[in-house]
Amino acid sequence: MLLVELYIYKGEFAKAEELPCLNNNDNSDVRRPLFKAIIKVLLNETPEAIKEWEEFRKLRSDYLLPPDVKDSQFYTLLADFDSFERVVKVLREDIFKKPRAKF
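Structure (tokenized):
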């Protein structure tokens, strides 16, 4: 999953999307649909992003969260797709505004 993040931050969304860890549907890691939703937003594929977002929310609801997490800004941010999409679009701006480091 770290490689997925790296490709996202480098602006190489197609490479991130092709990684095997994102295509393993047997994986119960909640980051899989979250990263897929992020990539789909970054690629302007909103219907697919919403589908992955819903999968993320479903998986996330299967895990018990500590009570203080529900009061955090992070929880509020992930409460609805529109908030999530706004933050991802800001990420896109940051990715393409700043000079990227060579890896």
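The chain has six helices and no strands. The chain has a mean pLDDT of 84.
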